[in-house]
Design goal:
Layout: H1 8-24, E1 43-49, H2 53-67, H3 73-76, H4 80-89, E2 92-98, H5 109-129, E3 134-139, H6 145-158, E4 163-167, E5 169-170, E6 173-174, H7 181-189, E7 193-197, H8 214-231, H9 234-237, E8 242-245, H10 252-263, H11 267-272, H12 277-282, E9 285-287, H13 294-303, E10 309-310, H14 320-330, H15 334-348
Parallel strand pairs: 1-2, 2-3, 3-4, 4-7, 7-8, 8-9, 9-10
Antiparallel strand pairs: 5-6
Helix pairs in contact: 1-2, 5-6, 6-7, 8-10, 10-13
């Protein structure tokens, strides 16, 4: 348990998760019937959430102490074997583990460092125990620059993580904020993969009463952090980081043209992004979680480089089959389907070829 008070924003996040989680987690709310027979096991899932028991116990305690909430039992009972049983059923070879909101940062330096290490050590042990089944996008306590640099070195050099997992904002500061530059400089030096998962903006958790805020705020917050990285020239300054944005980039496919039109007029930005906004957007990677439907996928596939779209399930918050069936119904060409399911991830994460 942390020694310092939890920020008001994080308390709201935790209370929200405690209230809505039970209705969205896969084991408690199956979305679709299981397929008739065993699936070929070849998909690579880049949007896959682990629930380390010690980490979840602390989350349970935070929720209970702060607001009298209770973390959903399915989160507390998660195990690698239960995950693998479902992965086998739905043809998922490997899940690249990452945190969802609220992550590991609560405004407390010591707690952020400890929770980051607990989370990554658990994932690394699962990778050792179940060879080939899991990967790791390791979390960092990003506002803590020293701690993040130390943790990045440990997870990338010692644990051999596949990349780094970050949230779209930390207490309202988006990823283009200058205070994060030292960490991004190091990740750029290492040519790291950085998976970005949305979280709630402090401003906006109660805008629509009686509505789960992630319904609209997650895709909007993803767009905000991409815009932040653009307007601060971060994509141009850190060209060797390979960013993956979850949920198809949020609202980016709809707004990219509007943003490019505005930003490309800025003379200062032209110095930082000399090849233009859309050039930087085309370099980004996106997962398919929550966008496996005809309208959303049409926008994403029109915007993104076809080799930069990766299968993502959002397990265990969403059933594997939801995304698998949704993409299948779009009836992509076989090579494009295989690219999304597996080949694009293998090109990005060559360790998985072994």
């Amino acid at each position: 348990m942390i020694d310092q008070p939890i920020s008001a924003t994080r308390r709201r996040i935790l209370a929200t998760l405690g209230a809505i989680g039970a209705s969205t987690l896969l084991p408690m709310s199956p979305l679709l019937a299981a397929p008739a027979g065993p699936a070929k096991r070849d998909r690579i899932d880049v949007h896959f959430h682990m629930m380390p028991p010690s980490y979840m116990k602390e989350e349970h305690d935070r929720v209970s102490i702060s607001h009298g909430g209770v973390a959903p039992s399915a989160m507390l009972s998660w195990t690698p074997q239960k995950a693998i049983d479902l992965m086998d059923e739905f043809g998922v070879a490997t899940g690249i583990a990452s945190t969802s909101t609220p992550g590991v940062w609560y405004g407390d330096v010591a707690a952020g460092r400890r929770l980051s290490r607990v989370w990554s050590e658990y994932a690394a042990q699962a990778i050792r125990d179940y060879p080939g089944r899991f990967g790791l996008f390791a979390p960092l306590p990003l506002p803590d620059t020293e701690g993040s640099l130390q943790e990045a070195a440990y997870v990338l050099d010692t644990l051999k993580a596949d990349g780094i997992g970050l949230l779209s904002n930390y207490d309202g500061k988006y990823l283009g904020d200058q205070s994060y530059a030292p960490v991004f400089e190091e990740l750029n030096r290492r040519k790291s993969v950085v998976f970005v998962h949305p979280t709630f903006a402090p401003c906006c958790m109660t805008i629509l009463p009686n509505t789960a805020p992630q319904l609209e705020e997650f895709p909007i917050d993803t767009m905000r952090t991409i815009t932040s990285l653009l307007i601060n020239g971060s994509f141009g300054r850190f060209p060797d980081i390979k960013f993956i944005f979850s949920h198809g980039g949020g609202t980016l496919p709809m707004l990219a043209g509007r943003v490019a039109e505005q930003l490309d007029r800025d003379a200062k930005l032209k110095e930082q992004l000399p090849q233009g906004t859309m050039h930087e957007v085309k370099r980004l990677y996106f997962d398919t979680a929550s966008v496996a439907n005809p309208s959303a996928m049409a926008g994403l596939l029109k915007l993104a480089d076809r080799g930069h779209v990766l299968f993502g399930s959002d397990y265990p918050f969403v059933a594997f089959e939801a995304g698998i069936k949704g993409i299948a119904e779009i009836k992509l060409a076989a090579a494009e389907q295989r690219g999304i399911d597996r080949d694009n991830a293998l090109a990005l994460l060559p360790r998985l070829k072994a």
